[in-house]
Amino acid sequence: MSSIATITIAPRAAERHVPSEAAIQDAGLAKQRIEPASASARALPRWVRRASGPIALVLLWHIASVTGALPGEVLAGPSTVISSAVKLFQTGELQAAIWVSLVRVLIGLAIGGTVGVALAVLAGLFRIGEDLIDATMQMARTLPHVALIPLLIIWSGIGEAPKIALIALGTAFPLYLNVYAGIRNVDSTLIEAGRTLGLSRAAMIRHVVLPAALPSALVGLRYSLGVAWLSLVFGEQINATAGIGYLMATAREFFQTDVIVVCLVVYALLGLAVDFTVRTLEKVFLAWRPAFSGT
């Protein structure tokens, strides 16, 4: 008769008893969240540090104006600028100008962004699209779009069309470049994993390629918004009858440096606002993507 040996198998590490969270806390080993040194109680809040630069700049500007180092004829002081901004706000000129300029930027961004993203998707997903589109876009993006203002005036007059077209041209290329690069830089491992799972081509594009390209697309959107406001400054010099650029042009004729500074500050604040909007979108849509946030 053959004897039957009894073999005792030790439990694997994954099957061993793991202390519960309550047991760990009872043992005095409560979990502690590790905070970076910059987030310690002794550190200043981030909003204070972020605001310190602009505040210091305004203080230096005020001191230079009060001491006479910066004459009012060259650049009005902060108090004069604030007073002019209040007057423009009370008369309603400032709100009307902001609204007109904002509408122009949004329309131009919608047109240019749609064209840029559509061409980038075609060139990024399909080789024939790359062959037909990419070379033309790479040549066209090197042209300074501001230099096209004379042609835009000849083609579409001096109304709203050349202003919006200028913004659309300025915003299309950054979005095209970033979306195209985002699609082509998708990790090939993800593509192979999708094929292994049996994803169709449409499902692969929807669930793998486009989500992986989204970070680059949002970077392109931030850059395009900056170019949009820069294009607006030039576009509103084309026989504008309303908008922030129109206020600047009128103030230039009368050497009103305070109004010019008000318009520049409004441009900067609007740019900051739209950049904050894109940052918020990044936090919402890229919550799944761990990223370095500084130390």
From TrEMBL:
<feature type="transmembrane region" description="Helical">
    <location>
        <begin position="259"/>
        <end position="278"/>
    </location>
</feature>
<feature type="transmembrane region" description="Helical">
    <location>
        <begin position="227"/>
        <end position="247"/>
    </location>
</feature>
<keyword id="KW-0812">Transmembrane</keyword>
<feature type="transmembrane region" description="Helical">
    <location>
        <begin position="164"/>
        <end position="183"/>
    </location>
</feature>
<keyword id="KW-0472">Membrane</keyword>
<keyword id="KW-1003">Cell membrane</keyword>
<keyword id="KW-1133">Transmembrane helix</keyword>
<feature type="transmembrane region" description="Helical">
    <location>
        <begin position="138"/>
        <end position="158"/>
    </location>
</feature>
<dbReference type="Pfam" id="PF00528">
    <property type="entry name" value="BPD_transp_1"/>
</dbReference>
<protein>
    <submittedName>
        <fullName>ABC transporter permease</fullName>
    </submittedName>
</protein>
<comment type="similarity">
    <text>Belongs to the binding-protein-dependent transport system permease family.</text>
</comment>
<feature type="domain" description="ABC transmembrane type-1">
    <location>
        <begin position="94"/>
        <end position="278"/>
    </location>
</feature>
<feature type="transmembrane region" description="Helical">
    <location>
        <begin position="96"/>
        <end position="126"/>
    </location>
</feature>
<dbReference type="GO" id="GO:0042918">
    <property type="term" value="P:alkanesulfonate transmembrane transport"/>
</dbReference>
<dbReference type="GO" id="GO:0005886">
    <property type="term" value="C:plasma membrane"/>
</dbReference>
<dbReference type="InterPro" id="IPR035906">
    <property type="entry name" value="MetI-like_sf"/>
</dbReference>
<comment type="function">
    <text>Probably part of an ABC transporter complex. Probably responsible for the translocation of the substrate across the membrane.</text>
</comment>
<dbReference type="InterPro" id="IPR000515">
    <property type="entry name" value="MetI-like"/>
</dbReference>
<keyword id="KW-0813">Transport</keyword>
